[in-house]
Design brief:
It is a single chain. The chain is 24% helix and 16% strand. The protein is of the alpha+beta class. It has two domains: 79 residues, Glutaredoxin, CATH 3.40.30; 44 residues, no CATH class. It is globular and about 45 Å long.
């Protein structure tokens, strides 16, 4: 199974997500998106695959979001993508793509459902233990 993670090694959530993927036995393709940002077409593909708006992909904390006035509804999706291309730190993370789907994994345990062989539980960097939800029976 191919697993791709758009990763920021300085982000604890991103590091935890990567560790959960690796604990499942997968060796993911790691794209450090601050060094190698996705292009406009790829950002649009990712938002479509996740079923979220372009605005929902914006990260506010630790970014120039406020200084750029990105909370203003005047900005079109095309303009918002332009800001993300100019300032990749505005792209929220981590984004994980697998054959089971594409998701913004905040919190990191959202990655469990995307993995072929997820671990049953995982200890995050801060010591928090997260467990995989039981599969739905139906």
């Amino acid at each position: 199974m191919t697993v791709t993670i758009y990763h920021n090694p300085d982000c604890g959530t991103s590091r935890n997500t990567l560790a959960i993927i690796e604990a499942s036995g997968e060796t993911p393709v790691v794209i450090e998106y601050l060094k190698t940002p996705p292009d406009r077409a790829r950002l649009l593909e990712l938002t479509k695959a996740m079923g979220i708006s372009v605005r929902a992909l914006l990260r506010e904390k630790g970014t120039p979001y406020a200084e750029l006035g990105l909370g203003d509804v005047k900005w079109s999706d095309d303009e918002l993508i332009g800001f993300m291309l100019a300032h990749p730190i505005l792209i929220n993370r981590p984004i994980v793509e697998t054959p089971k789907g594409t998701r913004l994994c905040r919190p990191s345990e959202l990655v469990f459902d995307l993995l072929a062989h997820p671990v049953d539980s995982f200890v995050k960097e801060d010591g928090e233990v997260v467990t995989r939800p039981a599969p739905a029976h139906g």
